[in-house]
Amino acid sequence: MDLSIATNPPLVELEEFKKWILFEDNDLLVLNKPGWLVCHPSKNGPFSSLVGVAKEYLTADTIHLASRLDRETSGVVLLAKHRKAASYWQKGIERKSVRRCYLAIIEGELTETQNISTYLGKDPYSEVYVKQMVTKKSRKAKFAETVFTPLFVSNQYTLCSVSTLTGRKHQIRVHAQWMGYPLVGEKLYGSNEQIYLDFCNTGWREEWRDALGMTRQALHGRALGDSLEGQSFWAPIPSDFTTFLKRKLGIDEGLMEKCILDSDQEFLSSLVEN
Fold this sequence. Notes:
Elements lengths: L13 H5 L2 E4 L3 E6 L16 H9 L5 E2 L8 E7 L2 H13 L2 E10 L6 E9 L9 E4 L6 E13 L2 E8 L6 H8 L15 H9 L6 H4 L6 E8 L4 E4 L4 H10 L4 H21 L1
Parallel strand pairs: 4-10
Antiparallel strand pairs: 1-2, 2-4, 3-4, 5-9, 5-10, 6-7, 6-8, 8-9, 10-11
């Protein structure tokens, strides 16, 4: 079963959860979230969300989600075990001393770095309540800035690194669509949001595979780092990413590793410069 396409994914097993741990100490629990699991607790019990399972693993009543990812986005998620640690990392994100780096596969051949600076707000034309869009500056609109840097381009697709200078809802996905290079696998911010609506109502349809390219949005939280303490966390590249890159972009293992290493080095440099 491909869990990334499951509208009602199975409950997480504790032994499987332990394999997702990237780092743990008295302050933090850092995890590599799979692209089929929600972060926040759900009505289906503690083993249906990342936070819920983490609380069971720690036998804790509370845990603080210092960073989060959309359900279909895989990668680094940081949980703080107490309020002081949560405050440090959350304030770091606000003051931009804590930064994120993502990897994305987008439709189309992006040949130059794009720095997108816009305002985001609720999309009044969409049937999806949570959908955002690029909008004019207003009292309710939120400023958002995203940098897309191409790493490898082939066959009308681009592997790129993405850095967010702000942290807004669905920011990368909205900006990718707005600049005309939507994420591969994107159901909501792609060419037809009806796919998202149908998916929510009836589940995955195999007929969508060719149109979407992947069964989930091709977005991976590769790294999260703190420039003040010099601490950084890295999530390995998921298999659905590497499979798509090999099959559709024709990139071999060695070149893929080089592209990702170059992106990693650029991110580490940005932390030092920050």
